[in-house]
Automatic annotation (TrEMBL):
InterPro entries according to UniProt: NAD(P)-bd_dom, NAD(P)-bd_dom_sf
Gene3D superfamilies linked to this entry: NAD(P)-binding Rossmann-like Domain
Signal peptide location: none
Organism: Nocardioides dubius
Residues covered by the NAD(P)-binding domain: 5-154
Name listed for the protein in its UniProt record: NAD(P)-binding domain-containing protein
Superkingdom per UniProt: Bacteria
Amino acid sequence: MLILGATGAVGARAVEAALADPRVSRVVATTRRPLAPREGLDNRVLDFTALDPDDEAWRVDAVACAIGTTRSIAGSAAGFREIDHDVPVQIAGYTRAAGATSYALVTSVGADPHSRNFYLRVKGETERDLNAIGFDSLTLIRPSGLVGGVRTRPANLGDHLAEASRAVRGLIPRRYRPVHVDRVARALVDSAVTAAPGVTVRESESL
């Protein structure tokens, strides 16, 4: 299994979940900077602006993608789209060509390629373009606000709102309640391994 976004809050927990899953025989994590060595983990440090389509990292059966950033960290709308759309879709093409049959993606509640909201539109475009690649199994995991875990970026307004909403969780519609990163990570890895045929959408309330 290839894990994308392994340094993020969800991705780091996905690595743990994959390493502990007896169904997963090999865990590959592609990152920009080295991870701490772990037994069973094959960490490949890559330049994501110059990916090699023939890299051995793409020779996996399944992909679990938790790559994501914010517009402020990316520095521009184009930078955000490159990380949240271009990289996941480009790697999807490489892994599919190398024989991968299953791809699971952490996207967002409300993702829609026709949304007026830039963030949700990019997420929806990523979902759409991954679907066009033709994996035997594609799972789209759409969590609401995330809580828990350790983030490698500064907390933003959305993070603070998600944490604050835990106090009034029962008053929030289930789809928009905050979701712990561990639940998302487990769903991501399990979906990639289980590989349900066709396209499966897992909305936030099912996590």
